[in-house]
Hints:
mainly alpha, Flag_bb_rod_N
Amino acid sequence: MGVHSRALALRMERSEILSANLANEDTPGFQARDIDFAAEMQRLDSDSHQLFASTSGPGLKYRVPTQPAQDGNTVELSVEQAQFSRNAMDFQTSLTFLNMKFRGLKQAIEGR
């Protein structure tokens, strides 16, 4: 199914990372993490014979806060919420493209 199936898998992984950031907003010393989605997609495209789950996983990076907390926590609620929302919208977009592809394949099989 091409790039969209890989994008969905990567977006699901990113959702888990961002959820962990949000869940640890008040945990002293917690370091917010994220992935460079574009770089990870390029990595996956360069090795298109392997699915995301069979590789070493995404390269997690630490998020640099704009206003560091005194307790060492780098989670900024507004940043994490915005990133989570954008990731969810992008997930839905990829899912829509996959649904359109399946619909087209179904119509071709049925001869419509």
